[in-house]
Write the structure tokens for this entry.
Amino acid sequence: MAEPVRPRRVLVRGGRVVEPSGPRRADVLVEDGTIVAVEATIAAPPGATVLDASGCVVGPGLVDLHTHLREPGREDAETVETGARAAALGGYTAVVAMPNTEPATDSAGAVRALQVLGARACVEVAIAGAITVGRAGERLAPFAEMAGLGVRLFTDDGRGVQHAGLMRRALEYARPLGIVLAEHCEDEELAAGGSMHEGAWSSRLGIPGQPAIAEEAMVERDIGLVRLTGAPLHLLHLSCARSVALVRAARAEGLPVTAEATPHHMSLTDAELAGYDPVFKVNPPLRPGADLAAVRAGVLDGTIDAVATDHAPHPPESKEEPFDLAPPGMTGLETAFAVAYGALCCDASTGVPPWLAGSDPAQRRASIAELFAAMSGAPARIAGLDVASGQGGALRPGARAHLCVVDLDARWTVDPAASASRSRNTPFAGRELVGRVRHTVCAGEPVVVDGKAVR
Ligand code: DOR
């Protein structure tokens, strides 16, 4: 007689499960990809894989709305496989792959090819489609055929849609399809090729800058277009105080606008560029401290729904070019949780990280539940992955088992050479961070165990 098939069981033991009211001591038992019990003490069933979560919080797997995986076209910088592994090490169980690949993800064929690659990756890879063909800003991409394959977010990220009339039409087409457009807010005429924020530091360094209005003007324009069309819009990587204020007012009006901010835009200022190191070159650029404080305040009051990485790997030879020629972008998947934890949650009692710029002791601190909401629940909802694959939900019996285990007391120093990404362009190299991912479980499968990728 054939052996009965045993369910695949994983027990996450000894941790504190993240709850809105505060972390609660509980073990989590997973069976065949589903959480079956969350209780104070669960005895390990025979054959279960036991993951030690003592001293750690156990939260829903993180969801990144903004990951550049570079495949196809720039596999020297990243691949779906290596980017997914970096994501898993950062506690992510799902990422949204940006469409600025070569060629761009602007057709059903391109989406299908990526879905095949994504299906082999160690975390869920959702695909974002381009708004315009080739991201050239001229003709709309075929939304319906990509939406038919499950694509929910569309963006020309890396560029904003420059023509207001085309963006209006894109929103009008998007609405009945139930898809969400995501804008990279940058008016190219106003940005005029600037390589950093235009302000005191750009004057001192003699680097051409791009003014904050290059972002703010497009935020304002697009909010007006949402008011006109009623279509939902997500605003990518907001970096300026005024952008946050515009979104706050739009939300108060009841407009369907969501927004994200990156860990680097809430922790590093334009003063980092003093050494002319292209690792700090990023788009939108690092801003002065007042903008950082406004971005953090935006996350804290819910104006900014999500923390997203904008993980933008670039190979060493391109980041070693002269400052004006080097491409913008920073890796971020493996450091995002710790950087956001430092910027949003840490205070005098936990120790504010010394590298954190513009820290305000009066700033309210986020709870761990709020941090997980911004890095898991909200991005899952915006990307539609809550419904599609059970990402970002509370850890309860019956839920899909996407979770991560984080040691909030662990201090570690960022070593670019140890990254799972193919690229090394982290701005946090050599800095000490607090908070380290110990385990990641995606759809019931451990993909990171004791800080090591196992798939
Ligand atoms: O700095 C950036 N790098 N900003 C973007 O919008 C695109 C990204 C990239 O793809 O390298």
Remarks:
- The pocket of DOR is lined by residues 68, 100, 157-158, 184, 282-283, 310, 312, 327-329 (CB under 6 Å).
- The CA atoms of residues 108 and 146 lie 5 Å apart.
- The chain has two domains: 9-57+399-453, 60-389.
- The mean pLDDT is 96.
